[in-house]
Amino acid sequence: MVFDLDDTLAPSKSSMDPKMSDALARLLERVEVCIISGGRFEQFEAQALSTFDASPDALRRLHLMPTCGTRYYKWEGRGWELQYAEDLTADEKSRSIATLEAGARELGLWAPGRWGDIIEDRGSQITFSALGQQAPVEAKMAWDADGSKKRALGAYASERLPDLEVRGGGSTSIDITRKGIDKAYGVGKLLDRLQLSRDELLFIGDRLDETGNDRPVFEMGVASVAISDWHETLASVDALVEWMDSPGAPFPLAVMPFPGRERAIRPATIGG
What contacts 176, CB < 8 A, 6 or more positions away? Predict the structure, then answer.
């Protein structure tokens, strides 16, 4: 099982609800779980780990992939240990930060305020958040309803940083990484690490639309379930746990159909 974090397991920049934490712990007793996000590890700690309670065996089945899998953490008995990091160079970081600020100013999108840093160095990713890292969900959703602001800044940065990857992140954010870095990249690294095939994964995320940052996982051929918020994720996890404990029961979730196929792929191998 692979989950997005923001607005999938927890409200944006907020901690997981206790009910979600309990459901995730029950799921971990049955199957390997990965959380992948564009955010830093500190965001994982604040949103998913600060109040999370699971057995040591369950924690060893939890895989954490910040910044789209360019960093990978596992539980090693006493804490979360970094397994690898693929950070940007100092030159790549400085050019990305300068370009994002220049573009935001030129396009009238530079508005530092009360909700935290506008540009954040995440090691392997530079992220522009138009309203600040801690902006409330309502403000973020209203800032760029049609996506035109992000597209304009993304085009500006892409033209000036041809050696790097520039793509939309969350509702107000632009992420810059090395070429080819997205959530599909991270999921591919996970498959290699666990020696699994794509058919053995199920992904749940809230940005699986054609321009969403979860879409690359679906496009790499992983069975995916689109949700709109963490409440739907909670219902999905509860249904999956019940399904795993009921041999022969029909798969309970609506998996997105792949183009050119009449029916959605059913992840029959999940849970054994």
Answer: 96, 100, 125, 126, 127, 128, 157, 161, 164, 165, 166
